[in-house]
């Protein structure tokens, strides 16, 4: 005869019920902890998302919004078709009327270097008795350009005001590729704005922007303040609104098309010159051209 399982005692049933209740409480506690953790991580994720969005807005604002992509527009007054702005003294620019620019009409950027590339257009020796032309490709975010300015600024100013040279800046944006704020383009735009509204202040503005190099990349509002400090307060709106970013992109593309690959690249009297030999080369050209 088969034995039946003995019926649990009351004590056993009570113990089992307590264990089941304990297990249920433990499961509920773990569930609540998981929910709290999920909520906590959800809040963290939301905060991170907000920070990312704000950062993107700030960076986009500092980069100049859609200015970086500007392809068509006007040049500033006093600029030339080669993307340059030429000083005839420290308070005067070679005058010219604004012209339309369209980056899409320019040749594509070369994909290979050319060690035998010709001299870029618009660079030629002076006629006898005329001021010696100096053309320099610069990037406002370039340490070697800042060093060039620090070393030679005073001498260049002396030559300019003596009528012995002209000095043309062709300001490019090569270093935007390593800048989170497109400072090269924004600085070049600011310089173009000053050339357009206050040409008499252009030399002082270029001097100031390179003297500021050690302070790092600055915002458009600070560039506008810098312009105002040298007497170019009229340029503020243009600087803040990226008024000549299409011209900056145009000048930058022209330099690349002409195989200019670094800054500063210096031309004196129609020939490329090592920056270390700048003073002697210019003075020799001045003496020979009298």
From TrEMBL:
Span of domain Thioredoxin-like fold: 131-288
Keyword NADP: no
Comp. bias (Basic and acidic residues): 1-30
Bilayer-spanning residue ranges: 38-59
Keyword field: Membrane, Transmembrane, Transmembrane helix
Keyword Magnesium carried by entry: no
Annotated region described as Disordered, given as residue ranges: 1-31
Pfam family, one: Thioredoxin_4
InterPro entries: Thioredoxin-like_fold, Thioredoxin-like_sf
Protein name listed in UniProt: DsbA family protein
Lineage: Bacteria, Bacillati, Actinomycetota, Actinomycetes, Micrococcales
């Amino acid at each position: 005869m088969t034995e039946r399982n003995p019926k649990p005692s009351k004590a056993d049933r009570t113990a089992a019920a307590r264990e089941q209740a304990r297990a249920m409480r433990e499961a509920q506690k773990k569930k609540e902890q998981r929910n709290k953790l999920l909520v906590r991580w959800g809040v963290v994720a939301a905060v991170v998302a907000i920070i990312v969005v704000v950062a993107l807005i700030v960076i986009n604002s500092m980069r100049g919004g859609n200015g970086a992509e500007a392809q068509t527009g006007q040049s500033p007054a006093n600029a030339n078709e080669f993307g340059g702005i030429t000083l005839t003294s420290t308070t005067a620019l070679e005058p010219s009327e604004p012209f339309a620019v369209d980056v899409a009409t320019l040749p594509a950027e070369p994909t290979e270097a050319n060690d035998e590339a010709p001299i870029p257009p618009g660079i030629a020796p002076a006629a006898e008795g005329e001021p010696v032309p100096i053309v320099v490709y610069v990037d406002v975010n370039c340490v070697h350009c800042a060093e060039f300015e620090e070393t030679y600024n005073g001498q260049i100013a002396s030559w300019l005001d003596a009528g012995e040279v002209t000095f043309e800046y062709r300001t490019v944006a090569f270093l935007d590729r390593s800048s989170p704020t497109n400072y090269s383009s924004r600085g070049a735009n600011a310089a173009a704005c000053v050339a357009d509204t206050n040409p008499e202040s252009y030399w002082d503005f270029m001097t100031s922007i390179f003297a500021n190099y050690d302070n790092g990349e600055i915002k458009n509002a600070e560039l506008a303040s810098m312009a105002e400090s040298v007497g170019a307060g009229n340029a503020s709106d243009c600087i803040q609104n990226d008024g000549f970013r299409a011209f900056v992109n145009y000048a930058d593309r022209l330099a690349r098309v002409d195989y200019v690959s670094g800054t500063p690249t210096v031309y004196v009297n129609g020939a490329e010159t090592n920056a270390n030999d700048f003073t002697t080369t210019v003075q020799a050209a001045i003496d020979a051209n009298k």
